Amino acid sequence: MGGRLHAQEYSTEIVADSLTRLVQAQSEAIDRGDYPEAEKLLRQALPLIRDKNARAMLLTNLGTVYQRLAQLDQALLSYSAALALNEDLASTRDSRAMIYAATGKMQQAVLDYSYLCQLYPLNEIYRYKRAMVYVSMKRYAEAEADLCSILEHNTGSLKASEGLALVYTLTGQYDRAERLYNDLIEKLPGQSLGYEGRARLFLLSGKPGFALRDIDKAFECTDQPSAALYRLRADICQIIGDEKAAHADRSMAERMTSAQIRGDR
């Protein structure tokens, strides 16, 4: 009859309204950092969604929530479920690759970053991240190839230059590494990047005094030292016999790494 909704249409309208409210509420919960509430709302919303792309979006959000809660296995399951619906979700695949790398699943991380590099061959971020995973796997030739590829398209990429200097450092090519670090310091005298790398170089080449000088300078140049910076200073302190300082820096690095894996801001 005119002016009336059939039962099925009425039911569909209720579901749509409920879904809209749930999606809005989960977004607000994530924004305010109430991740347990966001998880509950997402789990209520997902059974109501049939559209593949919308489900993939909410599954990605659920993965982010689990990541913030440090439930990394659940985060991986959610990201993987999202990618099964849409394999080209770049940010989702990037998030999954980051967890893989952080939890030692390096080959899986390489596969995800390789997929992203295939999708976006000129994207420097994905190629740099893959290079750093290769470094972690001691696959230095492949890391060097990725970094050189970045520099071929962008000769001014300082991150790629820093990465290449790291590869040279870890493969014992200290002179080549030092030249690159000196160049970085000359171009960025007020930033920690070059000093951190050169400190690592001096440590590995048996010059702890020079390493300590550069690591101190690196800390002076940044208001937000990274976990890697604390870890490197811990290694230097241990070599020079300051065990107390080394322990303090390692503890700080561990706390920061845990926060980074969760995606804390």
From TrEMBL:
Intervals holding TPR repeats: 56-89
Protein name: TPR domain protein
PANTHER family: TETRATRICOPEPTIDE REPEAT PROTEIN 13
Pfam families assigned to the protein according to its UniProt record, in alphabetical order: TPR_12 (PF13424), TPR_19 (PF14559)
SMART domains: TPR
Keywords of the record: TPR repeat
InterPro entries registered for this protein in UniProt: TPR-like_helical_dom_sf (IPR011990), TPR_rpt (IPR019734)
